[in-house]
Design a protein that fits this description.
Layout lengths: L8 H4 L7 E7 L6 H6 L5 E8 L6 H8 L4 E4 L5 H11 L4 E4 L11 H9 L4 E5 L6 E2 L4 H18 L11 E4 L3 H4 L21 H12 L4 E5 L1 E2 L11 H36 L39
Helix pairs in contact: 6-9, 8-9
Length: 309
């Protein structure tokens, strides 16, 4: 799929007073929401809470804290699907995605918005750039994050400092470029997640923003420990899933490039061949009779490479 229709003109207008929607995926976060909502800056014009079937009072607490909050029930499972459902419900000029456990600080949102107003299309939080820090990351996770950063920066020629951090903000007009899984599709009968419905969503949208040639910026961000409850992250399982995402997105990008070359290749195949009498004689000194010897055609072999959708 091509995204030439993506409208970034709105972004370049440098809206000085954009409306801002914040998307908060939730799953049994009733004790954390009061802390998160209390830090939301006044500039937020819309709060979209996407619930994944909480068994506690998460939805009730959200409505009590913010009666104007938009409550969305996600259509499948996983953080990726929750975010996609939230993006679809947003009406603000800018979308900010934060976590409900208190690990991302809502008070930093103005920093993200300021960079967007100054010209970026997509702004990524970083725990390891200037002004950033993490109170939660372990040495093992930091080592894995550094390795994944290196792979992405080499393959995509980027300069990410913190690939696996999910605090991002972007103009709503660029959402189509992220090409997220359709939220109306049913959950697979075998219970598995659709690709993009899980934690890989954070890596996926970062890479796709770069692949679409959007202006991507970074903001130093401080990660805090979860206030209450247990994290759903699994260091090894999710780490390999992120690596798989990187390789999948690299194949997707190359597949799109190959598809873009098809019209050119087809034009070469359909162009009329030059008459043999006009073929240029070989320049080799070993050819003694140019009437009988002609330069060999330089044909490039075409191997059939499976294309990624």
């Amino acid at each position: 799929m091509e995204f030439s229709h993506v409208n970034t003109n709105t972004d370049s207008d440098r809206l000085q007073s954009p409306t801002v929607s914040v998307v908060i995926p939730t799953l049994n976060e009733e004790r954390n929401l009061p802390h998160v909502f209390a830090k939301l800056p006044p500039m937020i014009t819309e709060v979209v809470v996407v619930d994944g079937g909480s068994r506690d009072r998460t939805v009730e607490v959200a409505r009590q804290l913010r009666p104007d909050a938009v409550i969305v029930q996600q259509t499948r499972t996983g953080k990726g699907n929750a975010l996609a459902c939230g993006f679809a419900a947003c009406t603000g000029d800018i979308i900010v995605m934060i976590d409900a456990d208190g690990s991302t600080d809502p008070a930093e949102i103005p920093l993200f918005v300021e960079k967007l107003i100054r010209g970026d299309h997509f702004v990524k939080g970083s725990r390891f750039s200037h002004g950033g820090h993490s109170h939660d990351i372990t040495r093992l996770r930091k080592l894995g994050n550094d390795g994944l950063n290196l792979v992405v920066n080499v393959l995509f020629r980027t300069h990410f400092t913190d690939l696996c951090y999910g605090y991002n903000a972007f103009w709503r007009s660029v959402v189509p470029a992220l090409d997220l899984p359709d939220v109306t599709l049913p959950r697979p009968a075998d219970g598995r997640k659709l690709w993009g419905d899980g934690f890989e969503i954070e890596t996926m949208i970062n890479i796709r923003a770069v692949a679409e040639k959007l202006r991507v910026g970074e903001v130093g961000s401080i990660e805090h420990e979860r206030i209450f409850g247990q994290s759903n992250l699994n260091t090894f399982k999710d780490g390999f899933r992120v690596l798989r995402t990187i390789l999948s997105e690299y194949g997707r990008m190359n597949g799109r490039r190959r598809r873009g070359l098809r019209p050119f290749v087809e034009s070469l195949r359909l162009s009329p061949a030059k008459p043999r009498s006009q073929a240029r004689p070989s320049a080799s000194r070993h050819v003694t009779d140019p009437r009988r010897e002609s330069a060999p055609l330089n044909r490039t072999s075409r191997s059939r490479v499976p294309l990624d959708d």
